[in-house]
Write a structure and sequence with these properties.
By secondary structure, this protein is an all-alpha fold. It is built from six helices and no strands.
Length: 120
């Protein structure tokens, strides 16, 4: 159906039909999210640039963009751009989702032990 609609309910509808449609949509979304996390794109991390790994480690550790920039050298605008790239590549819709799913990504430094990329 259009725009991801799960069910089309005509009025008048029973309350149980609405609840069933909502439950079906939630189940479908949960399955889609699980599949995206299992995809090779997600598992590989799709983060080829060491700077993006550094930025991601800083963000996941709770640093602000300007703190990451001050600690590792790039301009704050560059950190914002790299943060956006990390969010896209990790298929995260929010910072909370990125933090939750980050341990599944391979080859990324752990928060608090991140080392900045040496080749500036």
């Amino acid at each position: 159906m259009k725009a991801g609609a799960v069910e089309f309910l005509t009025k008048p509808f029973r309350e149980q039909d609405l609840l069933d449609a909502i439950r079906q949509a939630i189940d479908r979304d949960r399955g889609a999210r699980t599949e995206r996390r299992r995809s090779p794109r997600f598992v590989a991390g799709m983060i080829p640039h060491p700077r993006e790994r550094d930025v991601m480690a800083g963000i996941v550790a709770g640093l602000l963009n300007k703190q990451v920039a001050a600690e590792w050298g790039p301009a704050e605008a560059t950190v914002k751009e790299q943060r956006g790239q990390v969010m896209l590549k990790m298929q995260a819709g929010s910072l909370a989702e990125l933090v939750r799913d980050r341990p599944r990504a391979s080859g990324l430094p752990l928060p608090g032990v991140a080392r900045p990329h040496q080749g500036r």
